TrEMBL record:
Signal peptide: none annotated. GO terms for molecular function: hydrolase activity. The keyword Chaperone does not apply. It is an enzyme of class 3 (hydrolase). Its EC number is 3.5.-.-. The keyword Hydrolase applies. It comes from Clostridium neuense. Gene3D superfamilies: Glucose-6-phosphate isomerase like protein, domain 1 (3.40.50.10490). InterPro entries: GlmS/AgaS_SIS, GlmS/FrlB_SIS, SIS_dom, SIS_dom_sf. Keywords: Hydrolase, Repeat. This is SIS domain-containing protein. SUPFAM superfamilies: SIS domain. PROSITE patterns: SIS (PS51464). It holds the Pfam family SIS.
């Protein structure tokens, strides 16, 4: 089968099962860091889809490890940040291992005396791996298509399992809680194929509307804000129309004033503390635009514009399912609008801007 964004989406269940199965071996470098480092802080260095994945996993990491998670953009870390805690655990994420800004950030951390550095990557032979002995393999296999899908999901799952394994190793959680969490991961992974089917049906029901979109906004809260951020990345990369992502309250403090009747609004309604608030925002938005679409944790809906994924067991883990609609939407809208994703554009971009090796 030809490798496409969609073929990689179809691999996500298999990839996640492999990551879960191989977790002890692949995540051992992080577990050892947690055991040896005398710190309550992790500083992550990431950009693009990697930083979006971090925002999906951040709250799970903090809860399980009881450690503060800082997320810093590599270029800002290199060029503007003046101070960082050298006793903290520094983790750089680059699926390709070729991001020059992330490599430079790791160099800076090492050269300025950071004691505990790890690399998360999908390419354990890449350039970034020269800067730490602690290499964590995302374990998703090569993703030849430039628009990351299975790699994003694999990164979210890897980050959460790192937190779980680390918490169990240092005694933050007991065996019973650990085994309960593993079962929760098994359960959510098992729902990936059915979720893909639901998304495909939802897309087909709304296809004629979707392909006419010229301005998209996606709103989420909590861990789903990471999914909203990823939608910004994916839709811009593939459909190539203006798209913005917002945290729920952020949107309510100014950006709502831009809303127009032809804007497409996507609301990510996970099972969380503020889900009633996003429901109110959707109803208010419908006064201006009819193009309001909700991706919800609920099991059923009578509205064809609403996608009911039927998963409300865990808000953090739900991001593994909530990103699937964004991935499929990005791929199918591009295909149906006649955008040839297999043909690279701006082929000299990375060489001219020195953004990747």
């Amino acid at each position: 089968m030809k490798e496409t964004m969609y073929s990689y989406i179809l691999e996500e269940e298999e990839v996640c099962k492999r990551i879960l199965r191989d977790r002890k071996e692949k995540l051992d470098p992080f577990v050892k860091l947690v055991d040896e480092a005398n710190t309550n802080k992790i500083i992550f260095l990431a950009t693009g889809s990697s930083v979006n994945a971090l925002n999906c996993a951040k709250y799970y990491i903090e809860e399980k490890l009881n450690m503060e998670v800082q997320i810093r953009m590599p270029s800002t870390f290199c060029n503007y940040d003046k101070v960082f805690d050298k006793e903290s655990i520094i983790i750089a994420i680059s699926q390709s291992g070729r991001s020059t800004s992330t490599i430079d950030a790791v160099k800076k951390a090492r050269d300025e005396g950071a004691k505990h550095i790890a690399i998360i990557t999908g390419n354990t032979e890449s350039a970034i791996c020269e800067y730490s002995k602690n290499i964590i393999d995302i374990n998703c296999g090569e993703e030849k298509v430039g628009y990351v899908t299975k790699g994003f999901t694999a990164t979210v799952l890897t980050l959460m399992l790192m937190a779980l394994e680390g918490a169990y190793s240092v005694g933050r959680i007991d065996k019973a809680e650990y085994e309960t969490e593993i079962k929760k991961f098994e359960n959510v992974i098992s729902k990936i194929p059915a979720s893909i089917d639901k998304v495909n049906e939802w897309y087909e029901n709304n296809k004629e509307e979707f392909i006419k979109a010229e301005r998209i906004k996606v709103i989420g809260y909590g861990p789903a804000y990471g999914v909203a951020m990823e939608s910004n990345t994916k839709v811009a990369e593939t459909v190539r129309i203006p798209v913005s992502s917002f945290e729920l309250e952020e949107y309510m403090h100014g950006p709502y004033l831009e809303l127009k009747e032809d804007h497409y609004m996507f609301f990510l309604k996970t099972k969380g503390i503020v889900e009633d608030r996003i429901a109110k925002l959707e109803e208010y938005s419908k006064r201006t635009t009819k193009y309001c679409y909700t991706i919800t944790h609920e099991k059923e809906t009578s509205d064809t514009r609403t996608l009911a994924l039927g998963y409300s067991d865990d808000e953090d883990l739900s991001t593994l399912l909530f990103v699937i609609p964004i991935q499929i939407l990005s791929y199918k809208m591009a295909e149906d609008k006649g955008i040839p994703l297999g043909i690279r554009i701006f082929t000299d971009f990375h060489s001219e801007l020195s953004s990747k090796l």
